Amino acid sequence: MNRLVACLLLALLSHSTRTVFAGSKSTGAVQIAGKRYLRLTDWANGNGLQFRWVKQDEAMVLSNSNCRIRLKVNSSEGDINGVNVRLLFAVTLREGNPYLSELDGQNTFTPVLTPPKNRSRALVKKVCLDPGHGGDDPGYLAGGNQEKRVTLLLAQELRDQLTKAGFTVSTTRTADKRVELPDRPDFARRKGADVFISLHFNAFTERTVQGTEVYCLTPAGAPSTNARGEGSGAGRFPGNRNNEKNMLLAFQMQKSLTQALKVEDRGVHRARFEVLRDAEMPAVLIEGGFLSHPGEGKKILDPGYRRQMARAIVDGLLSYKRVVERQ
């Protein structure tokens, strides 16, 4: 009996001290640091993509006639058709094979490769705009310019362009007043909005930083690329019901903004900002540029540039609309 117990204990100890890398050769799925990863070559084949090393064990391309994905080992940087996209987890290399987290496969790439569809005859018609900050919350300050003022001006221009494009538009604030964060997505819900677009501008102490970035909600079980103001925990929120459409909307917005404005592509990011967590419809938060950058900040204050930015947002929404509406 003692010998049997000893053998069992030895077996358990041996199992517990194995490397976290373990998986099935037939499926290519493994566990790495408690997360499920997919062998990238298998995932590519399953999605009709050809895998090719650009630099052995360092950089790779996955492509077909419609899509080109570039990735690097040990990096969360990637791009889809030239649009910068931040991965939830870095691509990792094990035994000479690159692996992609299953969460990225499901929530980062699949929504773009195989876009989700609305239910039959459900249209993208109602848009809720959310100009960031307001009232006693000025947002970022740069050279005396307050973020809250510029977000409102952008929202007004965007509202007019969206209306002309045939959308029904509501706005969480139309004047310089404070709107509490929980009230913003709740307002969108009460208006029956099909999408929620929160408008912001960035600032940074290093005045050379510039470019646009678009945020959508972080999927449950993954870290955010920006934890600022998102609260603690990594659980599931109402907004996670729309993970696929959130990602698709963010991708289309970032693509349209960077191509139309010819600005630095800072990528599609994930965050658990309160306005994204509680949104019951597909939602994004747009950082339209850096007020702190001498050149970009000056352009943001120009009505003509904001008109151009609004046009890019409309075009991004129209691209999203065309993809998700069932024919």
Q: How would you describe this structure to a colleague?
A:
By secondary structure, the protein is an alpha+beta fold. The chain folds into 2 domains: 18-113, Copper Amine Oxidase, Chain A, domain 1 (2-Layer Sandwich), CATH 3.30.457; 126-324, Aminopeptidase. Helices cover 34% and strands 26% of the residues. It is built from 9 helices and 18 strands. It has helices at residues 2-16, 40-46, 102-113, 147-164, 183-190, 243-261, 274-277, 294-300, 303-324; strands spanning 22-23, 29-32, 35-39, 50-55, 59-63, 68-72, 77-80, 83-86, 92-94, 97-101, 126-131, 141-142, 145-146, 168-171, 195-202, 212-217, 265-271, 283-290. The strands form 4 sheets. Strands 14-11-15-18-16-17 form a 6-stranded mixed sheet, with helices on both faces. A 5-stranded antiparallel sheet has the order 1-2-3-10-9. A hairpin with a 2-residue loop joins strand 12 and strand 13 (145-146). Helix 4 crosses helix 9 (303-324) and helix 6 (243-261) packs across helix 9 (303-324). The longest helix has 22 residues, at 303-324. The chain starts with a helix and ends with a helix. Mean pLDDT is 90; it is low at 1-26.
